[in-house]
Amino acid sequence: MQVSQGEYNLNVPENEPLRQDYSLDINPWPTTTIKLQTGEAMNICEVKKEAGNIFIECVRKALDVEHDFYDIVGTRVYSELFD
Known about the structure:
The chain is an alpha+beta fold. It contains three helices and two strands; from the N terminus they run αββαα. It has a domain at 49-83.
């Protein structure tokens, strides 16, 4: 596996609560557009359940990336999509 740093020091009990989901009663994310450095426009909007399969396929691609633990992070995000 190719990595950019040979060692990571991580205190799991300290960091795990930061990753945990929590419920908030918040308004939907407002749709917006930002201009990229290339001059192109990128639309940002809240993902709707109907788009879930497309999002799942995009995240699934990270499962096979053998660099800097993308596969581990991808697996975790992928599993949370089914939560």
